[in-house]
Amino acid sequence: MKHQARKRFGQNFLQDAQLIERIVQCVAPQAGQALVEIGPGLGAITLPLLEQTNALEVVEIDRDLIAKLERRELQGLTIHSTDALSIDWGEFAKGRQLRIVGNLPYNIGTPLLIKLLESHQHIQDIHVMLQKEVVDRLIATVGNRSYGRLSVLMQSCFDIDALMSVPPEAFDPAPKVQSAVVKLTPKKDALDVQRTTALSQVTRIAFANKRKTLRNNFKNKLTEQQLEANGINPQARAETLDLAQFLVLSNLLSL
Ligand code: SAM
Q1: Which residues in the chain are classed under CATH 1.10.8.100?
Q2: Domain at 7-186, CATH from 3.20.20.10, 3.40.50.150, 3.40.50.11540, 3.40.1190.20
Q3: Does the N-terminal peptide bond of residue 48 adopt cis geometry, omega within 30 degrees of 0?
Q4: Best residue among 18, 61, 101 to mutate for probing ligand 1, ranked by most atoms within 8 Å of CB
Q5: Is any ligand 1 atom within 6 A of the Cβ of residue 84?
Q6: Is the distance from the beta carbon of residue 181 to the nearest atom of ligand 1 less than 6 Å?
Q7: Bridge-partner residues for 159, per DSSP?
């Protein structure tokens, strides 16, 4: 029976064979790697991935889709029937370095990336399809209008490459927005958990009110003198600070 796509699970199934092949080529899975697909759906990426490797774990929330996958009895496939947002990735990894792949449902893209950020030490790399607008924010640098908290946080721990743009017609049903595939690789000098948490707090405060100056957003937390003494203009706005300057702020606040 044909599966009726569920909006609440962000179901837009890939139907462009060439595009699927390009994604699988970018991932280039090899036997022995800890490959995990988020949201296998009807298996558009799952099956070609499985052809290239001997083991694949998938995480799917929709029980109907899980039942369909189970019926296929695919060799090497392990199915986790759960919400990807509820996963403790450190526990899931069990000492392995995960390679995460997924055509992500639009409603969980950003929160999932934030969770993966906190677990970057358990990750080898991430290849995900997201709304193009989110990818723009991930790769934006100072001066770009998409630059913001997500850019700073993700770039503190990952090297990020936008791999390809994907038009709505590549999916069934077609979404209303453009999509893009992005690769994230943990940086060698990625922040540890404590410093990531500090940076998360500092960027939350700095971007709390984008129109306000840093002096105003950090009122009662940092003095104008403290900011100036560390080379940060109190009259500046958060969007003008680069990662290095946010790290300075982060150190100041956690002193
Ligand atoms: N990989 C398939 C493809 O490319 O055709 C399906 C992609 S579809 C955009 C997103 C998939 O993620 C759906 O199968 C959906 O049921 C699943 N999903 C949605 N929310 C989820 C969640 N919180 N945890 C795990 N899977 C989820």
Answers
A1: 193-254
A2: 3.40.50.150
A3: no
A4: 61
A5: yes
A6: no
A7: 185
* Cα–ligand 1 centroid distance for 215 (angstroms): 42
Ligand 1 binding pocket includes 131 (Cβ within 6 Å): no
Q: How far is the CA of 125 from the centre of ligand 1 (A)?
A: 19
pLDDT in tens, the chain (255 residues): 789 999 999 999 999 999 999 999 999 999 999 999 999 999 999 999 999 998 999 999 999 999 999 999 999 999 999 999 999 999 999 999 999 999 999 999 999 999 999 999 999 999 999 999 999 999 999 999 999 999 999 999 999 999 999 999 999 999 999 999 999 999 998 889 899 999 999 999 999 988 899 999 999 999 999 999 999 999 999 999 999 999 999 999 876
201, 252 Cβ separation under 8 angstroms: no
In angstroms, the CA 67 to CA 51 distance is 21
91: enclosing H helix or E strand:
helix 89-93
Q: Which CATH superfamily is domain 193-254 in?
A: rRNA adenine dimethylase, C-terminal domain (1.10.8.100)
Cite the DSSP H helix spans in 95-148: 109-118, 132-139
For ligand 1, atom 3, the nearest C-alpha belongs to: 13
State whether the beta carbon of 9 lies less than 6 angstroms from ligand 1. Answer: yes
Cβ 55 vs Cβ 78: under 8 Å = yes
